[in-house]
Amino acid sequence: MSPTSPVPVAPAVSPRRGAPRAWAGLAPGVRDWLVRAGTLVVLLTVWQQVAQRTPAAILPTPARVAGAAVELAGGGELGRAWGETALQVAAAMVVAAVGGVGLGVLLGWYRPLDRLVSPVLGALFLTPRIALVPLVALWFGLEDLAKIVLIVAFGFFEVFFTVRDGVRALEASHVELARSYCVPRSRMLYAVVLPAARPYVLGGLRLGLLHALVGVVLAGFFLESSGIGGLIYTLGSAFRTAELIAALASVMAVGLAVNVGLRRLELRLTPWQVAS
């Protein structure tokens, strides 16, 4: 072979692109669900492998936890606990929503009043709510009223600060546009501010409800042992690990459902948020 002879080149092997193309051809929502399902399968597999090498009292297998969940649901313990919890959270959220939205709009619109009151509310917000338990128990006892007060403390501040900051963040163009249409200042709050602040109100209620779920679980630990928090405390004290994990999983499921459901409602009621 002479130096000038062309060197034979092996034919290029075209990569197999069937799988990437098939994956790219899936709808984004389908891909998301497949990724989540795959992640769940991996986590359950790791859990199963670790649990097989660990005493059941420390970490039961996924199958044992699933069986415990069926027993808790079939025996009525889980349903009764969540029924009590739903009533307590509903009562607390009425107070947190009315107070948080009302005060948030008021202080967001009237800056002098905000400068007077917000430092006190900010100090309370920065105080860990769990530190209020002894005082709540001393003032309101250990039963349902005390639990509702504690849940309000968890939910109120999320609603209030989200709404207040939202009203304060409204662009000046909203007010200027209203003035150009000769809207009197006495009607500005109802005609302009409240409709524009709707996304913040809905977002604050969603965050407040999620924090209220944290409050109701902790209330069951430190106050009357009822509701889902009381059930978790009782199961943990009895070293019923499988049932304990099942109860915790129900809290995770409810929290996820609340977050997703309220987020979809929020986007439905404020469709312009999707574009932004």
Automatic annotation (TrEMBL):
Pfam families listed in its UniProt record: BPD_transp_1
UniProt xrefs under SUPFAM superfamilies: MetI-like (SSF161098)
A GO biological process held by the record: transmembrane transport
Record's protein name: ABC-type nitrate/sulfonate/bicarbonate transport system permease component
Residue stretches spanning the membrane: 86-109, 121-142, 148-167, 213-235, 242-262
Similarity-based family: Belongs to the binding-protein-dependent transport system permease family.
Coiled-coil features, chain-numbered ranges: none
Keywords: Cell membrane, Membrane, Transmembrane, Transmembrane helix, Transport
Gene Ontology cellular-component annotations: plasma membrane
Residues annotated as domain ABC transmembrane type-1: 82-262
Membrane topology, as annotated: Multi-pass membrane protein
InterPro entries noted in UniProt: MetI-like (IPR000515), MetI-like_sf (IPR035906)
Keyword Membrane: yes
Locations listed in the record: Cell membrane
